Amino acid sequence: MGDHASPQTDSLAEALTELESTDSFVPACSHKGHRARLLDRFLKNSLTALHPHEILELLLTFTIPRCDTKPIAKALLAKFKSVSGVINASDHELREIDGIGERTIGLFYLQKDLISYCLREKYEKQSIISHRKDVEEYLRFCFGQRRDEYVATLFLDNANHILKTEILSEGTVNQCTVYPRIVFDKALRCSAASFILAHNHPGGSVSASEADWRLTERLYAAGKLLEIPLLDHIIITSQKVLSLREMSRWPSV
Predict the structure, then answer these.
(1) pLDDT of 119-169, one tens digit each?
(2) Which of 67, 166, 199, 221 is the most buried if burial means most Cβ atoms within 10 Å?
(3) Residue 43 domain-assigned?
(4) 154 φ, ψ (degrees, to nearest 5)
C-alpha cells in the first residue's frame, strides 16, 4: 500500500481535515483532524500502520459523520474481541452497541461479503485438491465466527473445481439438520461430479462428534451408490480446520 500515496492522497486528507475543521453541525462530536490522520496513515502504510481499534475507527468514519468513532470502535472490540469478530457479528448483536445503525451494519456486511467474493474468485479457478488451504481459509472466514451452526456443501466438477457453494442448513448451537436427499438433489441439479461437506463448530471444539461421523458415513455410502462421492467433511472453527478424511475412521473405499 505504501506506493499508493500520491498528491491526490494528500489532497483527500487535506479536504477531509478542512471539512472537519469547519464542521458546526454537531459541535459536541467534532473530532478535528483525527479522521484525516487515520486515513492518511492507512493510504501511506496500509492497515499495518493501524491498531485494531483504529481499523474499526476508520471504517466507522464512512458511516458516522462528524463524530469521534473511537469509543464505538473500542466498544465493538470489547464485545467481539477482534476485527474479524466484528465483521462476522449478526445485526442484532451489532445493534446492542450505542452508535451502530443500519448504514454501519450494511458496511460491515459489505466488507465480509467482499472478502468472501474475492476468496471465491481465487479458489473457483483452482483445483480444490491442490489448493485445499485456500478453501479452508475461505470456509474459516465464512463460518468460523458464526454463533449458530451452519452446514455448507461445495459441489465440484470432474476437474475438482468449485461449481457451487450452498448453505444446506442453519440451526442453533449443537443442532443443525442435514438431509442426504437434499444434498444429492442439489448435486444433480448442478451436475456435480463430487462434493465436500463443511460445517462450523461455534463452541470452538475442533473434534468430530459421533453425529458428525454418522452423517459422514451416510453421505459417503449414498455418494458411492450414486457415483457422486463425498471427498471430505471439514469442520471449521475460528482458529482451526479439521479434515475428517485425514482421520483413521474415514470410510474405506
Answers:
(1) 767 666 666 666 667 677 777 666 655 667 788 898 999 988 888 888 887
(2) 199
(3) yes
(4) -105, 115
Q: Is 187 helix (H, G, I), strand (E, B) or coil?
A: helix
- 58 and 134 inside one domain: no
* Strands 230-236 vs 194-200: parallel, antiparallel or unpaired: parallel
CATH of the domain at 187: 3.40.140.10
pTM value? 0.59
Residues 166, 104 share a domain: no
Whether 252 and 217 have beta carbons less than 8 Å apart is answered as no
Cα 202 to Cα 88: distance, rounded to the nearest angstrom: 12
Residue 243: beta bridge partners? 234
Range of the domain at 240: 127-246
Q: Are residues 34 and 90 in the same domain?
A: yes
Q: Which three cell numbers stand for residue 112?
A: 465480509
CA–CA–CA angle 200, 122, 135 (5° rounding):
25
For the chain, what percent of residues have pLDDT higher than 90?
36
